Please model this.
Amino acid sequence: MRSVVKALQRILPTLFVAAAGFAFLWHATDGFGAFTAEAARRQKIERDPVYVAETELTDYTGRSISLSGGGDSITLVEFIYATCPTICQTAGSDFFRLRERLHSSGLADKVRMISVSFDPQRDDNENLSGYAKLHGADGAVWTIARPHLRDVPRLLKTFGVTIIADGFDGYQHNTAIHIIDQSGRLVAIVDTDDISGAAAVVESLL
Amino acid sequence: MTPKTQTQLLWALLVFLFCAATRSQLERDPVTHILVQLPALALVGWLVASALRKRIPVAHLRSDHGMSCLLIALFSIAFWMLPRSIDAALEDPQMELAKFLSVPLLIGLPLGLGWQHAHPLVKGFLKANALSMLGVLAFLFTHAPVRICNNYLVSDQERLGLGFLYAAFALTVLWVIPLFTGRGVGERDTIPSVMARRAKA
Model:
């Protein structure tokens, strides 16, 4: 009996550390579900949607629009910069495919799609129009727009977007489709090429 | 305090100051962030452990073969291996501070205290796993189709993957050589020396 107690005394601290360590890692990874900051940001938004503050944007036709005040519409937002040679162009063609998909399933009049430039200094109307033409944005369901420069940091923080310089006069950033519901809450973030996923979220919000 | 202890503590302080002074330079590049700064911070704790070894009551360390200390270090290593922890340290000053404190105190220090009491089998197990883990990370970081850290470029991520591979290679050489020479850092771990000690006892 005494040897059992002794053995227990010897392994108890180890067991305690193991249990505490597992609990700590469980907490740090949201239940072993999110190992990257990107996964964590998406899961957090799904758990606790955040209100997107009213933000004025200017689209490529010069029209003033509101980012979160879509009225009865659901708003799909992608962050881009128009002079981007790589991922934003992919994001553009993904958004084109998404719009076609929403058209064919009769959902196009329920949504607004906005590609928002995070580089409003360089992205003038000309650059935004170029991006719109290249990818077939129509200015109706889908438009390309830029915020005021002073609003950019707040927008990036609300959406959890990190922009870093790529060393070639451009940027790398976590690209995704951000879905804002009718009441102006950011409720879901999905991969830019996850057309079905985005469409499913839209349907679930109607 | 013996001169040796003083030297070790002085080195710990110097390495820590080096990490603090080169913070922004080392963190600009994930290769130096992960493969220079983090190991250097862990070294700070390891040096403190070897300096204070004699002053810390070791009865418990001996009784569980340093296992609880090693586990503290392993869980802390696991936490700092999470890409989101690295992103958080770059974006949140509190997490950065937590890194500068926890890597020495919760990785280097317990590793240094636990390692000397660890069973040779446990040491071998940990070394082998460190090598294979570095190999897996190397593959993951060079082949991942997505960006793992929001604060680092894809090209940086691939260089870091290669860095893991070189680190695995360097550690293999470092750990294998003493097995053949029977000298140097791993002296007490060699098979002949263990046998000799047993025979004496």
Remarks:
- The mean pLDDT of chain B is 90.
- The CA atoms of residues 30 and 160 of chain B lie 7 Å apart.
